[in-house]
Amino acid sequence: MSTYLIKDVELVNGEKVAIGIADGVIAEISSKPTGSYDKVLDGSGCVALPGLVDLHTHLREPGREDAETVLTGTRAAARGGYTAVFAMANTDPVADTAGVVEQVVRLGREAGWCEVFAVGAVTKDLAGESMAELGAMAHSAAQVRVFSDDGKCVSDSQMMRRALEYVRQFDGVVAQHAQDPKLTVNAQMNEGSVSARLGLRGWPAVAEEGIIARDVLLASHVKSRLHICHVSTAGSVDIIRWAKSRGIDVTAEVTPHHLLLSDELVESYDPKFKVNPPLRSNEDIAALRMGLADGTIDIVATDHAPHPAEDKECEWAGAANGMIGLETALSVVQKTMVDTGLLNWSQVAGRMSITPAIIGRAKGQGVALAVGAPANICIYDPNQSQVVVAAEQISKSKNTPFVGMDLPGQVRHVFFQGKPTMISTQMVAR
Amino acid sequence: MSPELVTELPRHLLSIADLNHDQALLILDTAEELAKISDAPIKKLPTLRGRTIVNLFYEDSTRTRISFEAAAKRLSADVINFSAKGSSVSKGESLKDTALTLQAMGADAVILRHPESGAANRLAGWTNGVVINAGDGTHEHPTQALLDAFTIRRHLGTVGGDLEGKHIAIVGDVLHSRVARSNVLLLTLLGAKVTLVAPPTLIPVGVESWPVQISYAIDQVLPEVDAVMMLRVQSERMQNSFFPSTREYSRLFGLNLDRMNLLKNEALILHPGPMNRGLEISAECADGVHSVILEQVANGVSVRMAVLYLLLGGNIGVGS
């Protein structure tokens, strides 16, 4: 295994150092490195972050390999600075058995671009009717710790209570996609002044907030760990803030697109802005940013959701929900949170690497950069900027909502378990 | 109808929001001129000879399709009727592929009726031809609003003028009505005051941003207005508990003889059709002295002639 020295890079505390990498770990962090290395990389102008960890990725394999595969999705993740992703369970077949979760993890290992953790379904076939074999998935080689019916809400209160209780035996967490199904039948976009004008059926904030309110009370009652996926409304932030103030063991994520994009973009009727939960109002965006800044929302997760062109090149109502986001996440966080003064780089490392790894129990990931730590590293240059071009996304699908936007920053080098996956903004051939 | 004015119109007619005050008046004034053709023994102008207009209808709407077809033919255009069943929502050829096919066939304009909101906006992005929205989902139906305004102006306004100071009530299923959305935009653009009357379940959340007043009491509104526009209420809304029964709806929001008597003498009754007689409007009201419902149909042809004339007349070479 080659050894590397990244020179002139800044740690999150602003200290300028060189980082030596050997044998899969960080060999030294020093302003005057002493070791000898095979290759020297320029880190000037860059900040060194622990490799990013995405708790919410749709890799689509098995079943929708036309949209994404474990290989293409993890490669896109690496390009975005990630060294671990959690693959959501809504594949075909659904990841509701040990066999499927082990397959996904194995495909990730074979691809080698980043570590893949499998999320297991809470209910069989995501149908919400009977519990999937959570224990089998937890004790499988995939060691599943995060369970989610994401894409669908575990809307039945009793089922949610049982799942929260059951996963406690293996330190699991239920990640809820909070969406009251009865309030969102055929819902198309955020319900408000824009939906009223556009004549698109509304997805009201209360459909998310009502489920979150119920679930934090359930988690409190059974003393289990709850995670809320893709929080999108100001009211949800308030409820989670209240729950945390009561000591309830709840964590929450926000997506990059909900931090930046508002429902006014739907006026184009272009389904590249169609996502679930939907883009919300500017007031919601402001509340999400504040919630992420003050820690009410623990982490940023992409909800990277690839779809082939034909699923977006149609009428709004017929289009698929979802946006890709792995390759642009860090830039969007810089634009919305760092450049606005709401977060410093140390806090970004917490919200995009360290804390998601803790929530997902991802051993060896999300470890702050230190001598002896696994060499999972993202070297990021916040001084660059680039206009997002859909065709330049290396995800198999090109459905980025940020197309044409000028986003700050660029990932320069990425190391996964001591091996480079990206050097000088170029993917490393393998 | 000078050529300079023609070029002022937007390329497509997707929403009333695409129009400003002067453009809306230009369409109404042009329709007045073209209405004279309809009264002449030979109802035909050579303006659009050699141009191809496609009626692309994904929903059954015989009256709207025939109205556009008559308008196009009176301007000597070639008309192709394309009834597509379903949309890409319910599979079949995608709207995009259909658009590209029509463009390849040299369509100069596509008149689109579609069950999904925003379909016309999408189509406009895929074709070089002119797109006219003939009703998209629960979004808009701009030519319906134009013919409504035209009809109201003929009775209550002056030729060349707008609807400043007029008060118009729109009654019924505003939530699901493309006619209501286009009319709110157009009537207020022309200076009218608009009051929406409906049960709260049929008024969209977010309506606060509309330049309208809201009322749940039709009997209080009717004596105040210069025109009342009744919207079609689909009885299947009852299944989703928007209201408990068609009887109750009719009792609380239907226009009947007693309510008609609350109207000012010169007030108008409009309905975009097709009517549910006995539900939102009684026969006495539909056929009575206040009703201008059949005039709306006739005026529809003139207004659609004006739209085609203005959008296509000055655009030689489009789609070639």
Which key terms come to mind for this protein?
heterodimer, A: 430 residues, alpha/beta, TIM Barrel, five-stranded antiparallel β-sheet, five-stranded parallel β-sheet, 11 helices, 19 strands, globular, B: 320 residues, Rossmann fold, 2 domains, four-stranded parallel β-sheet, 12 helices, 9 strands, 38% helix, 14% strand, disordered N terminus, disordered C terminus
Task: Please give a structural write-up.
The complex is a heterodimer of chains A (430) and B (320). Chain A has a single domain (50-360), classed as Metal-dependent hydrolases (TIM Barrel). Chain A is built from eleven helices and 19 strands. Chain A has helices spanning 70-79, 98-111, 134-139, 157-166, 193-198, 205-222, 234-245, 256-260, 282-294, 329-338, 345-360; strands spanning 4-10, 16-22, 25-30, 39-42, 47-50, 52-57, 82-87, 115-118, 146-147, 173-176, 189-190, 202-203, 226-228, 250-254, 299-300, 377-387, 406-416, 419-423, 426-427. The longest helix of chain A has 18 residues, at 205-222. The radius of gyration of chain A is 20 Å and the shape is globular. Chain B folds into two domains: 3-140 and 300-313, Aspartate/ornithine carbamoyltransferase (Rossmann fold, 3-Layer(aba) Sandwich); 142-297, 3-Layer(aba) Sandwich (Rossmann fold), CATH 3.40.50.1370. Chain B has twelve helices and nine strands. In chain B, the strands form two sheets. A five-stranded parallel beta sheet of chain B has the order 7-6-5-8-9. In chain B, β3, α5 and β4 form a beta-alpha-beta unit. Chain A binds chain B through residues 188, 191-202, 204, 268-270, 310, 313-318, and chain B through 87-89, 94-96, 114, 116-119, 121-122, 125, 136-140, 178, 181, 204-210.
